Structure formats: structure tokens, C-alpha cells
Amino acid sequence: MAWFKREKYTIVRAERDGKESNIPTGLFSKCDSCSEVMTAQELKDRFRVCKKCGFHMVLCAEERVRLLIDEGTWNPCELVEGIDPLGFPDYAAKLQSARGKVGRPDAVVTGVGDLQGRPVALGVTDFAFMGGSMGSAVGEQLTRLIERATEERLPLVLVSGSGGGARMQEAILSLMQMAKTSAALARLARAGVPYISVLTHPTGGGVTASWAILGDLNLAEPGALIMFAGARVIEQTIRQRLPKDFQRAEFLREHGVVDEVVHRHKLKEVLALALSYLAPHGAGVSGV
Q1: Which phi and psi angles does 101 have, rounded to 5°?
Q2: What is the CATH number of domain 58-278?
Q3: pLDDT digits (tens, 9 = 90+) for 87-137
């Protein structure tokens, strides 16, 4: 007789005598919200949206690319590898560990591909790499993508999964990326090239305070936590209780920060429709 030991992300089958069975781990996962059990393949096919409660679980950058870009059209940009400029304790080791975990140099993936037949420049930050936080390498890679979109007049889509905000281990060098990416986006806007920002769970700190909410259109996934400072910090500062859904995507839509909340399974369709209005001829429109 076997029993199932439930862990946070994986169900592992074990025998009562404590010995592991020969059933591979990672075959099942449970929803982070309602604990509904699903197979790994089912989650992959649904792009990690719970079939029971509709909760949108965190996607890695590569899954985001698969979700939005037409198959066979993705051309990734060269990846920028960050360093430890300040000699921050244990930072170099954390970078190395994160690289081994995700198989890439830092927390962002950028490239050019087709979105329902329309060429776009796409950048995605990945929560799996140090909370998706933005250091010098992330800021540089995003800026290069924005500059390429400006030069080639490619509509720009940036997807934020940066709950870590600006990376504290790089101090002012990280904070500088807020101004750097914002300035690049200002040049993009002057060129009349459209930019759509997609806010996902979680997006926070310096990312929220810079490129993540500067879109011509700001979209968000249902239930996404979008913030600058955390709710507890704000409550302790103003000494007031905050609304229950404070900083969630739906709350921000009601208060004008987010233009629309879009289900993940409809996101590609909505982006294509929005770009058909913002760039009806397949490129930026002068004067937008």
C-alpha cells in the first residue's frame, strides 16, 4: 500500500517503509492557489493555468516565448552576462547558481519573432533567475532590444516577471538601469514605434517604477501582484489598513494603472489585435 507525500511543487510517491518507488518525480504538480493536482504535461499544455480555479502560475522566459511567438520564427538576441562589480558578499556564487538553474547568463531573454504573422521585438524577464531582478546586464540587454526596435521600427513587447525589482547587490549600478531603459523607451516613443507592456505575477520595485508601466498599453495577467513597495511596508508607514486586493492587477485596472487584465490563453490574440491598431502597416506609425 503506497501513500503520497505532498511537496510544494511536486508529488512524490513513496512506500510506507520509507523507500522511494521507481515512479519518476516531477510527473505531477499542484496549483499554488487551490492545490488542484495536474500532470506536468497538462500544465505545460495549459501554459501553467490551473484547470480548476484559473490561477496563473509563474512561467519561465522560454515558456513565455512559446506562448507569444509563432513557431519557427524566434531569433534570440545575444545574451549579456553580468558580473559582480561591487564584490558584494556571495553575489558571484548566487549568479553562478542561478545560471546553472535556468541555463542562461541572466534574468532576461530578448529577440525578434512573429506574433500572429507580425514581426515584433520581445523581451521577457524570468522570476526563476534571482526573482527576475534587474541588474546591469538585464538593463543593458533590454536597452539594446529597445534600440533595435527603434532602428528597425519593430513594435516592442516587454513581459515583466520581475518580483525582485532592481538588484540590491549592484546598488546604484542597478538603479541606473531604471533611467537607462526609460530613456531608451522615450526615444522609441519619439520615433512613433508602439510599446506594449505585459505585467505578470509578480512585478515589483524598480522594474515597476520604470519600464514595466511605461507602455502605450499596459496589460496584466489576472491576479498578478504589481507593486513598488510591499503592502506591509506601506501599512507600517501610513498606519492604515489597505484593501484586500491592493496591488493586484484588477485593483490597478480600476485605478487606471493597468489598461486591461487579460487571461494568459487570450494574451497573444489581444496583443495581435492591439498591434493592428497601434501599427496597422506592420511598423511604427510616425507621430503616435
Answers
A1: -70, -45
A2: 3.90.226.10
A3: 999 999 999 999 999 999 999 999 999 999 999 999 999 999 999 999 999
